[in-house]
Amino acid sequence: MADKGEEGGAEGEEKPKGLIGKLLGNKLILIGVGVVLLLGVGGGAYFFLFAGGEKTAEEAALDHPAAPPEPSAYYMDLPVMIVNLSSVDNTAAYVKLAVTLEVSNQEMLQVIEPNMPRVLDAFQTYLRELRTSDLQGSAGLYRLKEELQRRINVAVYPARVDDVLFKNVIVQ
């Protein structure tokens, strides 16, 4: 009974812990909450950085090297053309043109090949009407490229040429 007397009272009544006891109890609760939050944030970071989500296409390609992809474009070289240009004062002016055609698939090349005389005729008739001033500067070459592409697409329809690439353009 001496023990009960020292504790100070009835069975249901507890002695107040005092200021130190309250602070120690609150610190333990705060430390416990902090540990739980730290584990949650750490686990989430691990999941997102290392374990979670699908791999990107680059990562998947590095893990499983596949066969080389098919080319996205096919190219056809045209023969070099030398054409005299139109002039007002009857002076001789020539253009030497090396062109490559870009198409999206192999079947287009098979359609264009039998129509090559038509393509060359369309190119030469257009080029003969040009003047040297029409080919000056990047704007002149851009217009030439666009016009040649338009004319070749008309000549090889239903096939389609995606781009006309200049390998060499010399105006003399």
Could you characterize what this model shows?
This protein has helices at 2-7, 19-51, 57-63, 106-112, 116-128, 137-155, and strands at residues 74-77, 81-84, 94-103, 163-171. The protein is α+β, with helices and mostly antiparallel strands and 172 residues long. The chain folds into two domains: 18-69; 74-171, 2-Layer Sandwich (Tetrahydropterin Synthase, Chain A), CATH 3.30.479.30. Strands 1, 2, 3 and 4 form a four-stranded antiparallel β-sheet that branches. The protein is elongated, with a radius of gyration of 41 Å. The relative contact order is 0.12.
Report the total helices: 6
Number of domains: 2
**Alpha carbon gap, first and last residue:** 123 Å
**What fold name goes in the CATH topology slot of the largest domain?**
Tetrahydropterin Synthase, Chain A
CATH architecture of the largest domain: 2-Layer Sandwich
Principal-axis shape: elongated
CATH superfamily of the largest domain: Band 7 domain
Bin the helical content: 40-55%
Q: Rg, please?
A: 41 Å
CATH class of the largest domain: Alpha Beta
Q: What is the average per-residue confidence, as pLDDT, rounded to a whole number?
A: 81
The percentage of residues in β strands lies in: 15-25%
* Main sheet: strands, sense, barrel: 4 strands, antiparallel
Structural class: alpha+beta
